[in-house]
Design goal:
The protein is mostly helical. About 85% of the residues lie in helices and about 0% in strands.
């Protein structure tokens, strides 16, 4: 079960990777006194894309964390949970990479893979307690 929990930690930290990329990609020095306004002023597409990847990663995290916990509490096979958790983290990492690279189709595919992992974990949890 530790693998899945490590994946939850990785998924929780992943948005901050894209945050750092966004802050380092701007044309001017990052202003920590007003970070949202600073981001809004940036003209760099890379900064905007890194910020979008950050926001999307934050949005994806709660459902994933809940799915892992619910699957564990429901008694879903630990190996299955770990595999789905690893697949989710890999998909989310690739999602950010494809976001930065402006590759819409692969980004959408890995976004869907991550979503499918979450749905599968939740369905497995529901079936385990039914």
């Amino acid at each position: 079960m530790a693998t899945a929990y490590w994946c939850v930690l990785a998924a929780a930290l992943l948005p901050y990777v894209w945050t750092v990329v966004a802050k380092l990609s701007g044309g001017e020095r990052f202003d920590n006194n007003d970070p949202r306004a600073w981001l809004a002023r940036q003209k760099s597409r890379r900064t905007a894309r890194a910020n979008a990847a950050q926001l999307n990663a934050f949005e994806a995290f709660p459902a994933f964390a809940a799915a892992v916990v619910l699957a564990q509490l429901a008694g879903v096979d630990h190996g299955r949970i770990a595999l789905l958790a690893l697949a989710f983290v890999l998909a989310r990492l690739l999602h950010g990479v494809f976001y930065l690279a402006d590759r819409a189709t692969p980004r959408s595919i890995v976004w869907f893979v991550g979503l499918a992992c979450v749905i599968t974990l939740l369905v497995q949890a529901a079936l385990a307690v039914a």
